[in-house]
Specification:
about 750 residues, 28 strands, disordered N terminus, binds 2-acetamido-2-deoxy-beta-D-glucopyranose
Amino acid sequence: MANSLFFIKYNLVFLLIYLWHSVNGHPQCLDSRPPFQSHGSLSFCTDYEDFGCCTRSDDEVLRNRYRRIESVVSTTLWEACSHYAKTFLCQTCSPYAAHIFDSEQSHNSTEVVQRVFPGLCRDQCSTFYQQCKELITPYMEEVKNEDTLEEQIRLENAYRHSESSFCSAILLSDNDYCYPELLTNPILNGNISIEKVTGEGCICLQPFEAQFRNPVFLKHTNDGTDRLFIGEQIGLVHIMYTNGTLLPYPFLDIQYDIMTTQAKGDERGLLGMEFHPNFTSNGKLYIYYSTHLNEYEVSQNFGDHKIRIEELRVNLDFPDEIDVYYSRVILEVYQPWWNHNGGELLFGDDGYLYIFIGDGGRAGDPLNSGQDMFSMLGKVHRIDVNKIDPVRKKEYSIPPDNPFADGIKGLPEIYAFGVRNIWRCGKDRGDRLTKHGKGRIVCGDVGQGAVEEINLLKKGANYGWKLKEGTSVFCSTCQQALREIPLTEPIWDYPHAVGKSVTGGHFYRGCESPNFNGFYFYGDFMSGRIFRLTEPKNPKQKRWDNKEINMCGSNMCKPPFISDYSTSIISFGEDEAGEIYMLSTSYPSATSYSGSVYKLVDPSRRGNPDACKNVEIPTTSTTIPTTTSTSIKTETTTPFKPVFPTKPVVRDNSGSSVTIAPFDKRLMNYLDYYKKHRRRNNRRNFQTQFKQENRRQQWKGRTYATTPPTKYVKDSRQKTISKTPRKDAISKPPQLIFHGINIQRCKNDRCSLRKIMPQK
Ligand SMILES: *[C@@H]1O[C@H](CO)[C@@H](O)[C@H](O)[C@H]1NC(C)=O
Ligand SMILES: *[C@@H]1O[C@H](CO)[C@@H](O)[C@H](O)[C@H]1NC(C)=O
Ligand SMILES: *[C@@H]1O[C@H](CO)[C@@H](O)[C@H](O)[C@H]1NC(C)=O
Ligand SMILES: *[C@@H]1O[C@H](CO)[C@@H](O)[C@H](O)[C@H]1NC(C)=O
């Protein structure tokens, strides 16, 4: 691994040097962002409509400037010279504006310093000076600002002195960009046309300041609140706005229930979260995490730990917090070993919850879970969380069209099988115009020793593990099975020379980087490489088109963008607008604050900011579904009141805001509730609540990067700090077949939480 990291670094350095020379002539706006197509919305600087840097409002500002210059000069001068005024003003709309105005950024900020005059080529300057030099002063008066005062004086003096001193003064440091020769300059390809592809196949990243401990997911609620929910493996979920503001306390804290360690590469922890499709009206969400076995389960040698899928609800008073009184365990599955725990949770467009569970760990799937149709492990499951199943005594029901819905040939939960350890999936929201691709789900399935694969999710598909690893045969003694069992091939796979642990990604359907449309971005955790897949044009072609995505050079990725990143790629996510984020770390431990969030950006072309500002946000439902046929019988007595404001309750970072309810009052409420319902052993018990509150108080007024509460990290392999010391599960394979949990089997009331929830 050290070797491969070195290799990557070496490659990046090489790449940067290479790109520095090859993309010198790169279009760039004054704000260092790429140009865009304004689709006929300009009425003044119309030359730059197809590919330029001005929005409609920028264009109007320029027209007004033009009018003001006109109003202060003589009619004769204006008749002869107005076209110069327009040309100069409109250069800020040029796709090469950053170069024509020699714009520079100070090293410590994103502030741009730009010159007053666009760089004119010698001949152009000469003609202009001879015919229209009286325009110089009124033009400069109009465009000046505090920063350009000095320059203005210098140019004023030069202009009074002579033509040659003026034309020297406005010469560009790189004269290749002088106007108008840049329009035909072969170095700039003689053309200003819409960049159809993403530069040299490279991207930039927009980093966020906040650091996270192994950030495993980034989700949004699709309710127009612009919140990103970033999950840390250790059991916390934080809210960050897309502008980078991080709320000072977590949305969810289940550290006490999480089983993980600070060991690099521990795969247990909080692994997934998904909001209900009707979150805006019911406030529900689902989490997927590794948790400790209870004493009974330990005594029965049920394995290393269990994964739990649990329904939670947002706090009706504070939409930025979880409701600690509400919980419903949907499903628990025992995990024989510590690794391959899967962890993705997704709602399909069909409204069902998809659950991606790994093969249970160890090399070569020793329990043959992937092909065992009566094991919950090594599968993709699909369940209906809106209805309980009173016959099977489950907190969910089986969608009638599940491939084994009758349970005869396999578990009715199964939707697809033969998977090893699916790590991250993306659901396509479809092309913005045609809706092509809408609803399809593509996942990365981590390989064993040779091949990493990407799968397109299909009902009833057998992805082959452990008969095959990707497209290559894994079980060499399974010739008959390989001949007889129909397998679904991955849409892409790659050998370990490319990367050793795939991280599935997302389809880009955002507005800001139109060239990315339809790209499925994904990466590799070990090699740190980023790729994209596109659907083949020929539908007969089973394999998708794959391309490695490199970082552009620092000449293209100017602040706020960067071209370097932490290479352990953990996850990808998307925001409400469909922009894609990458989550990676430089030290993959659940307790190390080395994880970063980056937004993927195309430096060659961006979406029209006018259009992207107004990306359609789904209309938030304000109607409260009273009791619908699908509503769950286990609702608490307090019906959930959707109180989602269009704006979230925002607290300032100092924590001094008053919106937090008085602690004592909430505590009293909780005690009442606690007594009333005798929720013994509820994991969010009084003590936890107290500790959470305590910590929240401590967090007030601080930056968020406090020391991780390591004492709550439970290590199953260190019996001394483990709450439920395990029997030696790793050396002894579990004796039971892991069919998922039978809730009734648990003695501890944790497993029958439903019973102690007040009934309607
Ligand atoms: C950038 O540095 C300059 C000089 O070192 C300083 O005056 C300025 O305040 C700095 N700006 C920021 C945003 O830190
Ligand atoms: C600009 O591009 C167009 C179309 O791609 C081409 O026909 C034309 O020759 C190009 N102009 C120059 C100067 O290269
Ligand atoms: C970021 O956005 C949030 C919500 O819109 C807002 O409250 C906050 O002030 C913004 N922060 C900055 C630094 O602009
Ligand atoms: C969401 O609510 C709508 C309207 O009440 C309903 O038709 C739909 O089935 C719900 N979706 C899910 C996934 O529950």
